Amino acid sequence: MAGTAVYFLRDGALHPIERSAAGITSPTEAVRALLTGPSPEDRKQGLTSALPLLTGSLETALAKVTAAPNAPGRLRVTLPYDPTTLTPLALGQLTCTASAAALVELTGTGHTTPATHCSDYAVRHPVSSPESP
């Protein structure tokens, strides 16, 4: 894949959208982009998100988001909310956006999910740019 993919939902399935043109170069930046939600162009293409809306200041909430290796082949993503309350689709969005290759553990507000891999979630569509249907 040429760029970084952010995983939104289309027709109830994970749908990766390439975001390399937006200058996203790290897992932290990709997760932050995901948490801001689909752009107006994405929404026109039928993309949605299962993630909860961020509360308070967007800048403050996004500042709490990090994604860093915590062991070989593993990535820990810190969120501004409890990830154990999220739906499987929301967990898939976060996991696949953080890394298509590493095991990903989600943590926030003192709660942590078991490590999962993007392949644990069904991704039915190929990567597309926001302009493609």
- Mean pLDDT across residues: 88
Largest sheet: 4 strands, mixed
How do the strands line up in the largest sheet? 3-4-5-6
- The residue fraction in helices comes out at 10-25%
Provide a count of the helices: 4
Structural class: alpha+beta
Keywords:
globular; 133 residues; four-stranded mixed β-sheet; 6 strands; alpha+beta; two-stranded antiparallel sheet; single chain
Quick structural overview:
This protein has 133 residues and is an alpha+beta fold. Helices cover 23% and strands 23% of the residues. The protein has 4 helices and 6 strands.
Describe the structure.
Helix content is 23%, strand content 23%. It is globular and about 35 Å long. The longest helix has 11 residues. Strands 3-4-5-6 form a four-stranded mixed sheet. A two-stranded antiparallel ribbon has the order 1-2. The mean pLDDT is 88. It has 133 residues and is of the alpha+beta class. The protein is built from four helices and six strands, in the order ββαααββαββ.
SSE topology:
Elements: E1 5-10, E2 13-18, H1 27-35, H2 40-44, H3 58-63, E3 66-71, E4 74-78, H4 88-98, E5 103-108, E6 111-112
Parallel strand pairs: 4-5
Antiparallel strand pairs: 1-2, 3-4, 5-6
Helix pairs in contact: 1-4
